[in-house]
Design brief:
mainly alpha; Endonuclease Iii, domain 2; Endonuclease III, domain 1; 2 domains; 12 helices; DNA-binding; nuclease; lyase; glycosidase; iron-sulfur
Length: 220
DNA sequence: AACTCGGGGCA
DNA sequence: TGCCCAGAGTT
């Protein structure tokens, strides 16, 4: 298992691999961030980014999403997939924000998870990025990367992965951790056919070492 | 833990 | 074509 300084090294390397143009979502206000992350479920980020720029011009408050017919909102987000569920969820979510939170986005992940269409991952992203709350978002990419590198155990649950990460990452980088690991997992440490031989973290990667050994054995 | 939801991207 | 995707909700 990787110790704290090794994990820190991994995150430093991932930071350098991360493109200059940081995720625009970082700079959005909490409400826009929340909407964007809810929309991003099960579709790629650049697909969502295509929609959000025009979406956030048209809709700026929870009331705005409720002011138009459902069909109009569906049309506006149609191109990202799952738009029927997502548009309904967003309206439900906005209604809850108005009714229960005075139109503001709640700050803790416990409150965020009560909202429609907001699960553990979305709640953690919004809480940590927008409000600097103690949380690290874990999705399939983060989980895979953490397990391959040896940050946590293979059989750890999502919750255990999250807790291990919070133990091994310094507090002021919690908000950034999921962006780096997700990007690394999406474009380098891919689920299928990861290019381990070109990976800068190969020397300390548990799974990478195993794969390279296998590859060499197959050659000879 | 397993299943469903589903449009677009990509090979 | 067929498979996959920065998940969440329900059973």
């Amino acid at each position: 298992m990787l110790n704290k300084s090794q994990v820190q090294y991994c995150l430093d390397v991932m930071k350098e691999m991360y493109p200059q143009a940081q995720c625009e979502l970082d700079h959005a206000n909490p409400f826009e961030l929340l909407i964007a992350v809810v929309l991003s479920a099960q579709c790629t980020d650049n697909l969502v980014n295509k929609v959000t720029s025009s979406l956030f011009q048209k809709y700026t408050t929870p009331e705005d999403y409720l002011a138009v017919p459902l069909e109009e909102l569906q049309q506006d987000i149609k191109s990202i997939g799952l738009y029927r569920n997502k548009s309904k969820n967003i309206r439900k979510l906005c209604q809850m924000l108005i009714d229960d939170y005075g139109g503001e986005v709640p700050k803790t992940k416990q409150e965020l998870m009560k909202l429609a269409g907001v699960g553990r991952k979305t709640a953690n992203v919004v809480a940590s990025v927008a409000f600097n709350e103690p949380a690290i978002a874990v999705d399939t990419h983060v989980e895979r990367v953490a397990k391959r590198l040896g940050i946590c155990r293979w059989k750890d649950s999502v919750l255990e992965v999250e807790q291990t990460l919070m133990r091994k990452v310094t507090k002021d980088e919690w908000a950034d951790t999921h962006h780096r690991m997700i990007f690394f997992g999406r474009y380098y440490c891919t689920a299928k056919n990861p290019q381990c031989s070109e990976c800068p973290l190969l020397t300390l990667c548990r799974e990478g070492q195993k794969r390279m050994k296998k590859k060499n054995a197959a050659k000879t």
